[in-house]
Amino acid sequence: MQSRFGKLFDAIQSSLIILLYGPPGCGKGTQGRLIIEWLGNTIPSISTGDMLRAEIAARTPLGREVQSIMAAGGLVPDGLINAALCSRIQQPDCTRGFMLDGYPRTVEQAEYLDNLLASRNLPSPIVIHLDVPADVLVGRMVSRRQCSQCGEMFNILSKRPKVVGRCDVDGSPLIMRQDDHEDVIRERLRTYEKLTRPVVAHYPSDRYFQISGDRSTPYIFEEITGILESVMDAKT
Ligand code: ADP
After folding, report:
1. What is the edge-to-edge ordering of all strands in the sheet holding 153-155?
2. Which of 8, 18, 142, 201 has the most Cβ atoms closer than 10 angstroms to its Cβ?
3. Whose CA is nearest to atom 18 of ligand 1?
4. By alpha-carbon position, which residue is closest to atom 5 of ligand 1?
5. What is the pTM of this model?
6. Which atom, in ligand 1's list, is nearest to the CA of 192?
């Protein structure tokens, strides 16, 4: 069912840009799915990681170029990801705005996004930062499994599938992401600290909200929806 916010958002003819920011494994994907549903599917969720994994699966030239970088836990060059994002947000489903999961991940990407939004007359983003301690992240990621078809996430410790190794939604096999092995996870966390954490300073305090992601899903979601409602209420 659509939320009060979703209806409000429908009524006022403006766009909404949400950035879900935080380290690998902080829960961006889980919260992202809930937010989009709460918004009544008015805007799409764009995960740059999912976009890149789709390129790899389809063996496109971009996929071939980024495969080894992702497998090693590094970042894809800014120019490549910026171009991919630019063409994605020109799709018709982005006319009311969009939510980004995993972008921007460098200061250069944040600057690129600023220019892109300004050139398209779109508002500045609301940044939701899910903060989780590094030791919690490693434990979460080594035990997570993803549906090979629909992308639904499970965790063999905290969110087990009903049938071992199978997705509850469509029954497809669950897989471990290639970069969810401990040595690669540690490299991804190093990359995050070095290149992605500085992005926080890029956003003004009235658009940036840091919340603890080391809590259960409903508590985090309640805090996020409270933030989105207060930002929208301030606009009306
Ligand atoms: P996580 O947030 O759990 O690390 P993602 O699915 O967002 O997972 O990203 C997986 C990988 O895809 C990253 O480690 C990186 O190699 C690549 N990637 C995703 N988004 C970006 C981006 N905005 N810039 C550069 N590389 C990216």
Report:
1. 153-155, 144-147, 174-175
2. 18
3. 49
4. 49
5. 0.89
6. 4
Choice from 70, 111, 181 to test ligand 1 binding pocket (greatest atom count within 8 A of CB): 70
> Cα torsion for 208, 215, 144, 3, to the nearest 10°?
-60
Q: Is the pLDDT of residue 62 over 80?
A: yes
State the pLDDT confidence band at 91, using cuts at 50, 70 and 90. Answer: very high
Rounded-to-integer distance, Cα 51 and Cα 86, Å? 12
* Sheet-wide strand order for 208-212: 45-47, 97-101, 16-21, 126-131, 208-212
pLDDT, mean of residues 222-228: 95
Q: What is the pLDDT of residues 136-165, one digit of tens each?
A: 999 989 999 999 988 888 999 888 999 999
User: Measuring from each residue's beta carbon to the nearest atom of ligand 1, which residues come in under 6 Å?
Assistant: 24-25, 47-49, 52, 69-70, 73-76, 81, 102-103, 105, 109, 179, 188
